[in-house]
Amino acid sequence: LLHQATDDANAERKRLVAEARTAAEALRADWQAGLERSQRSLGEEITRRTQEEVFAIARKALSDLAGASLEERMSEAFVLRLRALDDETLHALTGALPSASSPALVRSAFALPSEQHAKIRQAIDAVFATHVELRFETSPDFISGIEFTANSRRVAWTISEYLASMEKRVGELLRQSPDAKRAPGPASGDPNTAPASDPSR
Fold first, then answer.
1. Taking Cα atoms as reference points, which of 143, 160, 161 lies closest to residue 67?
2. Cβ atoms of 126 and 80 closer than 8 Å
3. pLDDT value, residue 105
4. pTM score, two decimals?
5. Can you say how many angstroms the Cα of residue 168 is from the centroid of all Cα atoms in its chain?
6. Residue 143: which residues within 8 A CB-CB, separation 6 or more?
7. Most buried among 1, 101, 128, 178, using CB within 10 Å?
8. Distance (Å, whole) CA 123 – CA 39
9. How many other C-beta atoms are found inside a 10 Å radius of the C-beta of residue 32?
10. 156 strand-pairing partners
């Protein structure tokens, strides 16, 4: 009987030790998983805030640097973009001109000199091989740049859109899994040539 009692006690002790070990391992696993989640969450928050700050600083710097002389250079670049439109975009814009219920719109971050107005008018008339009624407006949301809108189609040369495109690409990269090996490919389409949308982007 004593031998049986000793065996039973040893078996119970082993069972209790095994249960305690299992519970400890489960607790350790839960703690480790919680710690990893906290670290990942903190890392994501730091990355997100850093990303926001970087783009905010970039926009502020470009906005501070932008001026009339830069806008004049941008208008020249815009004219070059107009003359380099691909056939599909040119066809879409040309098709939008006759159906426009109001003059086509040219917007810029700063008021352009009359000389720049004339150059843009000449370039647009030459590209579309017809006289296009234009209305010029200013839109500080661009930071720096020029946008031509005919009905629902547009062509633009703006720094703000390049920043928005870059910000989107960085966000997509950061949302990839940590073990992702493939870098994102080139963005489809031209971020400065698209259907007109909210200019506050």
1. 143
2. no
3. 92
4. 0.53
5. 2
6. 59, 62, 63, 66, 109, 158, 159, 160, 163
7. 128
8. 55
9. 10
10. 147
